[in-house]
Each structure stands twice: as structure tokens, then as C-alpha cells.
Design brief:
The protein is built from nine helices and four strands. With 229 residues, the protein is an alpha+beta fold. It has a single domain, classed as NADH Oxidase (3-Layer(aba) Sandwich). A four-stranded antiparallel sheet has the order 1-2-4-3, sandwiched between helices. The radius of gyration is 19 Å and the shape is globular. The two termini are 28 Å apart. It binds flavin mononucleotide (FMN). The site of flavin mononucleotide has 11 residues, from strand 3.
Length: 229
């Protein structure tokens, strides 16, 4: 049988549903073998042309962690200013836990990506999609192990590249906060804080062509449309 046992299937859907982007952490360290498992989970991800474009830099020097935090803080203020009327509301959101979490990683796209044409000739951004798959694997594995993970993308990738000595062509795409948490948010924090809500699935799926709202609504079977996490 190709199918997993029902209890395993339930566990897969459960971790998908209960994964959260975490920004509140306890400071206790992540055990080295646990970190290794999470990195291995990331490395088992699919990638365009089996390119494996992910690179991870573990941040262990406290001053380097401080520097990352300062970069994010400065981008957070720029983002707030760019948001106009939602500036104050945005500034009240917690958008990272860099100084509190047990472990910080930087995830980057490798250098020399132009050599990889398979699956990227018309869609070069498939390298980024591949790294996102790796990070999603890590996110799910961390949740299953009871560890929180937060993806932080509020930074200037050029400045971060300079700080961490990335080679030309490589690009940092995520600061990853990993660590123990008191509890996982029941809903996305941005939903809890009233910033945004999850859209109805049925409005995002259409049939045969890009659908108008009404057409989209009928495209998904009611049972599926009603399955909200
Ligand atoms: C590519 C990407 C970048 C993100 N960057 C940030 C970020 O800089 N700061 C932050 O607080 N959350 C960030 N998030 C987390 C999202 O805000 C979060 O996934 C979303 O609000 C839904 O919540 P959930 O992940 O708990 O379901 C990012 C998520 C993704 C996928």
C-alpha cells in the first residue's frame, strides 16, 4: 500500500494546520541534534532541477546577532513609513524574536545560480521557490518537535550579504529564529492582532481560466471550501 496509516496522515495535516510563524521565544538553547534534524529536513526538500540552492549560516556570535537585529529594526521603521496610514498599527506588531530565540540561522540563495537552467530558463525565481520549500520543511519539522520558528524578511539583503561575507551572486532571503516557546499561537499572530485574516479558499480557486469572484466560488466543492483551519 502506498498510503500511510490514518494516524500518520492525521499527524501530517495537523502539523500543517498548527504550524505558526513564531516571534515569542524562551531563551533556552536548541539541542545540537535537534538543530541537525531540522537542517536535514530542510535539505530533503524538492528543488528545481535538483539544484539544492539553499545555504544556511548559523549565527552564534552575540554581536552578529545584535547586528542582524539592528538591521531588522531599521528596515521595520522604513516599512512602517512606507505603509502610510497603517504605520502606527504596524509599529505595534511584533515582527521578529531575534534577540530572544535559542538559535538564529540565515538562509541564502547560493551563488552561481545562472549556470542552472533546468526549470529556470523562463522562471528564474524557481530557485527562490526551492529555498522556500526547504524552509517550509524546517518549519513543519520544528512544529512537530514542539519548537517555534519565525521567518524574518525585514532586512536589506545587500547589507546582510556584506555583514556575513556572502559571495557575489548569493543572496540572503531569510533570518530564521528557532527556539523553545511557552505556547504556539492558536491563529496567525497577524490575524490575532487584526492585521489580516485568512481568505476563503473558494475565492482563490477557479476552473479553466482565471475566474471572476462568482465563478470562483463554485469552483471548489462545498466540503473543501468549508474546511477552514
Ligand atoms: C516569505 C515569508 C516572509 C515572512 N517574513 C516575515 C517577517 O519579516 N516578519 C514576521 O513577523 N513574519 C514574517 N513572515 C510570517 C508571516 O507573517 C506569517 O506566515 C503569516 O502571518 C501567517 O501566519 P502563520 O505563519 O502563523 O500561519 C513571513 C512569512 C513568509 C512565508
Amino acid at each position: 500500500m502506498n498510503r500511510y496509516p490514518d494516524s500518520d496522515i492525521d499527524a501530517i495535516y495537523r502539523v500543517i494546520r498548527e504550524r505558526r510563524d513564531m516571534r515569542h521565544f524562551r531563551p533556552d538553547p536548541v539541542a545540537p541534534d535537534q538543530l541537525q534534524r531540522l537542517l536535514q529536513a530542510a535539505h530533503w526538500a524538492p528543488s528545481v532541477g535538483f539544484m539544492q540552492p539553499w545555504r544556511f549560516i548559523r549565527i552564534t556570535a552575540p554581536e552578529r546577532r545584535q547586528a542582524l537585529h539592528a538591521m531588522v529594526e531599521s528596515e521595520r521603521r522604513r516599512t512602517a513609513a512606507a505603509l502610510g496610514e497603517r504605520e502606527d498599527e504596524f509599529m505595534r506588531l511584533k515582527v521578529e524574536g531575534i534577540l530572544d530565540c535559542g538559535e538564529v540561522l540565515v538562509a541564502a540563495l547560493m551563488d552561481g545560480r545562472e549556470r542552472h537552467v533546468f526549470g529556470r530558463r523562463t522562471l528564474p525565481e524557481m530557485d527562490l521557490a526551492s529555498v522556500a520549500c526547504a524552509l517550509q520543511n524546517m518549519w513543519l519539522a520544528a512544529r512537530a518537535e514542539g519548537l517555534g520558528m519565525g521567518w524574518v524578511s525585514l532586512f536589506d539583503p545587500v547589507a546582510l550579504g556584506t555583514l556575513l561575507h556572502l559571495p557575489p551572486g548569493a543572496k540572503a532571503i531569510a533570518i530564521i529564529c528557532l527556539g523553545h516557546v511557552d505556547h504556539f499561537y492558536e491563529q496567525p499572530l497577524l490575524e490575532q492582532e487584526g492585521w489580516a485574516g485568512r481568505q476563503a479558499l473558494a475565492t482563490l480557486v477557479s476552473e479553466n481560466s482565471w475566474g471572476e469572484a462568482d465563478a470562483r466560488r463554485i469552483a471548489v466543492a462545498p466540503t473543501l471550501a468549508n474546511t477552514s483551519p
